[in-house]
Amino acid sequence: MAGARTGQVAVIFVSQRTAGDAAGYAEAAAAMDALAAAQPGYRGIASARDPDGFGITVSYWTDESNAIAWRDHPDHARIRDAGRDRWYERYEVIVAAVTRDYDWRKG
Amino acid sequence: MAGARTGQVAVIFVSQRTAGDAAGYAEAAAAMDALAAAQPGYRGIASARDPDGFGITVSYWTDESNAIAWRDHPDHARIRDAGRDRWYERYEVIVAAVTRDYDWRKG
Predict the structure, then answer these.
(1) ipTM of this predicted complex?
(2) Partner-chain residue, chosen from A48, A99, A104, that has the shortest CB–CB distance to B54
(3) The pTM is what?
(4) Residues of chain A whose C-beta is under 8 A from some C-beta in B?
């Protein structure tokens, strides 16, 4: 199917986890997924992480203003501070406007 | 650091692997990473995959025409056909123009 995400804003979060606090991180990550899903303009999220702690999360938003509102959400900002302190060695955030997309599924 | 990727094109590939042929898949994935890196306009790639086979790969390109040229590369198309046959249950491709980006690293 073509085009379901065209026009949306994708926020790509690339991160390297520290070795520690797996339980605290898992709890915070689940809470942030749930909080993101409750925000205006949310259109989905997908995450994958290698066993060595390198991960990519992509969240989708209807437009840039909703993506920025989520970035600036106080609970999100608070967890981000905790993440820099405890859970991440490094991360990269890439915000991008979707120009085309398609998907395939085994028939 | 802000803005290293702003203006680039991000190609997000979200996929669910089948259970089989781990060796064949790993070999093909490494060959495609190397081939992508040799293409005009290539600006990097990052991949993560959960133990259950759900993965996200993001490749970066200077512009849309280079991203399209990579999509249409004959070796890439041939491997894609093999992937649909053997390695993937489903996948989604999202092409997006980077509007802002920043990174952070533990000091």
Answers:
(1) 0.95
(2) A48
(3) 0.96
(4) 5, 9-10, 12, 14, 46-51, 54-58, 64, 84, 88-106
